[in-house]
Design a protein that fits this description.
The structure holds two protein chains of two kinds.
Chain A: H1 2-10, E1 25-37, H2 42-46, E2 52-64, E3 68-72, H3 79-86, E4 94-99, E5 102-103, H4 109-115, E6 119-122, H5 136-147, H6 153-166, H7 172-176, H8 185-197, E7 203-207, H9 215-232, E8 235-240, H10 243-249, E9 252-257, E10 260-266, H11 267-272, H12 277-285, H13 325-329, E11 335-338, E12 341-343, H14 348-370
Parallel strand pairs in A: 3-8, 3-9, 6-7, 7-8
Antiparallel strand pairs in A: 1-2, 1-4, 4-5, 9-10, 10-12, 11-12
Chain B: E1 4-13, E2 20-30, E3 35-39, H1 46-53, E4 61-70, E5 73-74, H2 80-87, E6 92-95, H3 109-120, H4 125-138, H5 155-166, E7 173-177, H6 185-202, E8 205-210, H7 213-219, E9 222-227, E10 230-236, H8 237-242, H9 247-255, H10 294-298, E11 304-305, E12 312-313, H11 322-330
Parallel strand pairs in B: 3-8, 3-9, 6-7, 7-8
Antiparallel strand pairs in B: 1-2, 1-4, 4-5, 9-10, 10-12, 11-12
Classes of the chains: A alpha/beta, B alpha/beta.
């Protein structure tokens, strides 16, 4: 143990920071924490214990105008909760949210409602997130009604028509008075995006917006989002479990594991040089559509730990092939290891070495098999 | 081990508005020990095809024509009693979509698989229990977890337990309908590894129904691409993914980019799949196809060999002049 402490003290002072993004920062999350209290047993009440689910535990990032940030991770990693915290649909336990230079962490509900004009969300399930008794016009117009923005029916119709045109539900008149049940999944998700867009927000948080859609049509929804980002400077936080999708759609990717960001980099850099053992395992688990590339099935041993009682130190250490004593006692900070490439791992160099060794061994083995 | 031969299989659902042509003239041959992937979007008939093979259609579904032969015996001509006693689960088994959520929460996983064996075979409980433990080991679950309840299993383990259950009566053919769809990637690779091991050890034939092209690319030997109840392209997995010839297959492949590829725009195929109550005339894909000609709107293309191995495609533009069509296909710009 003393050895370990000596090692810790000998380490250069690595500063944890907030990964920076594009030049024109719109949103900053700083050390966001969300703990959900659990029901306590009698024993816990008597001992004064307050068990919590550590859904999000110290997450920092920035999103710029005209930029897509992907939050990627497996179920239970806290990506959805993080997205909800950004819009304060959940109240953070700790940390700060800064939107357009203003700290909104403790903003009063009335002020927050004003601000939500500029920040909107698209949910995963286009079947569940829409009132089946409302037609498309009323669904899309509802945010304007809540915000008191629609002064007349004509104006409302005009803005709804514009929003529907933006998501390519044309001819607009044909869709305006349909009900959700008369729309396909892809069309519904476009309505959900139109509803978010009708207020002309600066920030959009999209939680798995295409995971319920067929492969052949999800590209259409993605292209609409991409166009809004490029043409209107929308800042988009794109939450997904699909690393392959994030690689092709997002500018930057933050990989989450058990409530923390373990790696954050430009999408290209992240897939070319995955530097955290968890990202590397995720990369290996993602299947290729090239049948010649055989799967490299060295996943991580064990299961996702319970977020009520996460492992001490680095949260990956019980499953990590590189784990050392240091990893068991000290949480690695998210550190910028290369320009714009942030990694939270004590053994980044070794992780990279092993990854490229494995990668270079891969094709050779394959050729032997095919040849 | 026997060969599964499906010829011209046609299955309709009766509705008040008329027949829904869910499976329309589907033919393929599954050699022993091989894996066939069936891909397509929701509503293309891929799940209905699986249910037809196992004769588990709802009352509205009925086979209109064609044959399904396992080792030469016509399974569709067999009476239900014989089929139930001799074929279903014993020779052909199925892993249903979402079945892992259908495990009974108040029975242990071991009990549920044991019941499945006892319901089909005259063996003692002890023999059945031992077989369950072997099966669990086979799918990579510690047999000591025999007495645990479903809530004590992770998603990937539940799905592997369901696969173990499908294997309970030593089938020759397993039909797996979206076996990894609800799972995280790490769990997905566990389940697919288990399936690959089983195929090696038991020599199983596999029909894998999935919308996920990467799962099929990594698991199957051959692929059938279904669109609107029909197979539009069929062939060895490398041919289908690396040299797709049907515009629909090409669109699917481009809509599903590889994580290792350079950044690309994810395309989509315009429009939506047709309703099978009233499919379009000619080629069923023509309303969505960027290459469609008058011929496509008028005549239905046959599934014909393209020259390369067993690769077959049903497209007026792909088959006759591969060189011309191939050039056109790579320049297709999807909306």
């Amino acid at each position: 143990m003393t050895n370990v402490n000596a090692t810790i003290n000998a380490l250069p002072a690595l500063q944890a920071g907030t990964p920076t993004g594009g030049a024109d920062v719109l949103l900053k999350a700083q050390d966001l924490v969300k703990h959900f209290p659990l029901r306590r047993s009698l024993g816990q009440v008597l001992k004064g214990q307050r068990p919590v689910v550590r859904a999000v535990d110290g997450v920092s990032f920035q999103v710029g105008r005209g930029e897509i940030l992907g939050l990627v991770g497996e179920s239970g990693c806290g990506k959805t909760t993080t997205g909800r915290l950004l819009l304060r649909l959940e109240e953070p336990t700790a940390g700060r949210i800064i939107f357009d230079g203003q700290d909104i962490t403790r903003l009063a509900p009335a002020e927050m409602r004003q601000l939500r004009r500029r920040m909107q969300m698209v949910f995963q399930d286009p079947y569940d997130s829409m009132n089946p008794n409302m037609d498309v016009f009323h669904i899309v117009a509802e945010p304007m009604v809540i915000q008191g923005l629609a002064k007349s029916r004509e104006e409302a119709e005009e803005r709804v028509a514009q929003a529907l045109a933006d998501v390519e539900l044309v001819p607009v008149e044909e869709f305006m008075f349909r009900y959700p049940r008369e729309l396909s999944g892809g069309q519904r998700q476009r309505v959900a995006i139109a509803r978010a867009l009708v207020l002309r927000p600066d920030l959009l948080v999209a939680d798995e917006p295409v995971s319920m859609l067929d492969v052949s049509i999800r590209g259409g929804v993605l292209q609409i989002l991409m166009r809004l980002v490029q043409e209107r400077g929308l800042a988009l936080v794109f939450i997904t479990h699909d690393l392959a999708l994030a690689r092709h759609f997002c500018d930057r990717i933050a990989v989450m594991y058990l409530g923390r960001v373990v790696e954050h980099a430009a999408a290209d850099a992240l897939v070319r040089r995955p530097s955290h053992p968890y990202t590397q395992a995720l990369m290996r688990a993602v299947l290729s559509t090239d049948p010649r590339r055989k799967p490299n099935d060295t996943g991580l041993p064990g299961e996702l730990p319970n977020p009520v009682n996460p492992p001490a130190g680095c949260r990956l250490h019980p499953r990590c092939p590189l784990a050392s004593e240091l990893c068991r006692c000290q949480t690695p900070p998210l550190v910028e290891r290369a320009p714009g490439h942030w990694v939270a791992c004590h053994h980044v160099e070794r992780a990279l070495q092993e990854h490229f060794l494995a990668a270079s061994a891969g094709p050779a083995v394959k050729e032997v098999i095919i040849g | 081990m026997a060969e599964l031969e499906v010829r011209n299989l046609t299955m309709h659902y009766r509705t008040r508005k008329g027949p829904v042509r869910a499976v329309d003239g589907v033919s393929f041959t599954l050699a022993p020990g091989k894996a066939l992937g069936i891909v397509g979007e929701s509503g293309c008939g891929k799940s209905s095809l699986g249910l037809t093979l196992l004769r588990l259609l709802p009352p509205s579904g009925h086979v209109v024509g064609g044959s399904v032969r396992l080792g030469g015996v016509d399974l569709l001509a067999m009476d239900e009693e014989t089929f139930r006693k001799e074929v279903r689960w014993k020779r052909i088994a199925m892993v249903f979509q979402g079945a892992m959520n259908a495990l009974n929460p108040v029975l242990t996983v071991g009990q549920q698989i044991t019941e499945a064996i006892l319901a089909h075979e005259r063996v003692s409980r002890d023999v059945a229990v031992q077989r369950v433990k072997d099966l669990l080991a086979l799918v990579g679950i510690n047999p000591d977890r025999w007495g645990q309840y479903p809530h004590q299993f992770s998603g990937g383990m539940k799905q592997r337990a369901i696969i173990a259950m499908a294997l309970a009566c030593n089938p020759e053919v397993v039909i797996a309908d979206e076996p990894t769809t609800a799972l995280d990637v790490m769990m997905q690779s566990q389940v697919l590894n288990a399936i690959a091991d089983l195929r090696r050890q038991l020599g199983l034939s596999l029909i894998l129904v999935s919308h996920d092209l990467s799962v099929v690319a990594q698991t199957c030997d051959e692929v059938a691409v279904m669109y609107a109840g029909k197979i539009v392209e069929y062939g060895p997995v490398e041919e289908i993914f690396l040299h797709p010839q049907h515009p629909y297959t090409l669109g699917l492949v481009q809509a599903f980019p590889d994580i290792h590829a350079d950044r690309v725009t994810i395309v989509s195929i315009p429009g939506t799949p047709p309703h099978l109550l009233n499919p379009p005339g000619g080629c069923r894909f023509h309303p969505r196809c960027p290459l469609a000609t008058d011929a496509c709107r008028t005549w239905e293309p046959e599934l014909v060999a393209t020259g390369a191995s067993s690769h077959r495609v049903a497209c007026h533009l792909a088959a006759p002049s591969r060189a011309v069509a191939g050039g056109a296909l790579t320049e297709v710009s999807w909306a």
